[in-house]
Amino acid sequence: MRLVIMGTGTFAEPTFEAILAGAHPVVGLVTQPDRHVGDKRGSTRQVGKGMKEIATERGIPIYQPDSINTPEGVQQLLTWQPDLLVVAAYGQILSRDVLAAAKSGGINVHASLLPKYRGAAPIAWAIYHGETETGVTIIRMSTALDAGNILAQEAVLIGPEETAGELEARLGPLGARLAVATIDRLAAGPVTGIPQDKSKATKAPKLTKDNGLIDWSRPAADVVNQIRAMQPWPTAYTFLHRAEKPPLRLIITKATLFGGRADDHDPGAVVFRPHGVLVTGGDHNLVDVTNLQPAGKKCMLASEFLLGHNLQDAWMGPDAAARDSASAKP
């Protein structure tokens, strides 16, 4: 089968490399345009070796449109005469015309146990919601978001302290193995697949920086899950408030549950100990902040942060402007 690969980032790279090592020729790569650092339109996915670099090394033609769903995009695909589109974390919903450009349509390598977590950020939202299991699903593509028939699926456990970035790195090779096996099956003959149960579908929308703002009124376990889910992007953050000092923005890169409670403290209250920072959750259980990054500084251990900051009567929460804005909303 003549294959066109469509994808971006570390989740897609193992699939691309595994297919290149297989029996089916890759006639083109479609990936996101090059973005400057800080460009808000850029992909938030982790990048390892790079899809473009992998293709260049193998002499694979590369196409990087802002949108593949244009007459020009469809024409480029038709020029390559693909039998199948193989999509992994590409970041665009494909139009009917794009899917029709390949004789056998397309398959998608998706990092969740569909129908749960349809959308752009399934790994992060699975961790955010406290899931202990996720996986990879290969689906037949349709014009609806991640709604096609299931062709293959395999589950894995989520580690109790695993971040979204760490989990993505584990799921990438699994997706590659399932994709290669599915392509071989499709090459051998028609594969119908299993329809998804729409009643069990959940959403995993694209992350924004606002998703990183910690709400300390949530249970401590949920806060810890959020911090894990937002790594490596957009990162979880809060504001440290101390008497007679301006709020200090803190990125929290690692935290765990602490085996204790603070029933006499409000959510967000800092209950510090000599070598660590504990923060009260909405259920009065404690979040043990172990790694953090103050605005304009490098990431550091909480014990290092305490050397230069007095946290007596300190609390964490939104800055004054954000708090006033939230209270003003109907």
Which helices and strands, and how do they pair?
Layout: E1 3-7, H1 12-20, E2 26-30, H2 51-58, E3 62-63, H3 71-80, E4 84-88, H4 96-100, E5 106-110, H5 122-128, E6 133-140, E7 150-157, H6 164-188, H7 220-229, E8 236-241, E9 248-261, E10 277-280, E11 285-294, E12 300-301, H8 302-306, E13 315-317, H9 320-328
Parallel strand pairs: 1-2, 1-4, 2-3, 4-5
Antiparallel strand pairs: 5-6, 6-7, 8-9, 8-13, 9-11, 10-11, 11-12
Helix pairs in contact: 1-6, 5-7
Q: What do these coordinates show?
A:
The protein is an alpha/beta fold. The chain has two domains: 3-200, Rossmann fold (3-Layer(aba) Sandwich); 209-328, Formyl transferase, C-terminal domain (Methionyl-tRNA Fmet Formyltransferase, Chain A, domain 2, Roll). Helices cover 27% and strands 23% of the residues. It is built from nine helices and 13 strands. It has helices at 12-20, 51-58, 71-80, 96-100, 122-128, 164-188, 220-229, 302-306, 320-328; strands at 3-7, 26-30, 62-63, 84-88, 106-110, 133-140, 150-157, 236-241, 248-261, 277-280, 285-294, 300-301, 315-317. Strands 3-2-1-4-5-6-7 form a seven-stranded mixed β-sheet, sandwiched between helices. Strands 8, 9, 10, 11, 12 and 13 form a six-stranded antiparallel β-sheet that branches. Helix 1 (12-20) links the parallel strand 1 and strand 2. The longest helix has 25 residues, at 164-188. The protein is elongated. The N and C termini lie far apart (57 Å). The model is unreliable at 37-44 and 324-330 (pLDDT under 50).
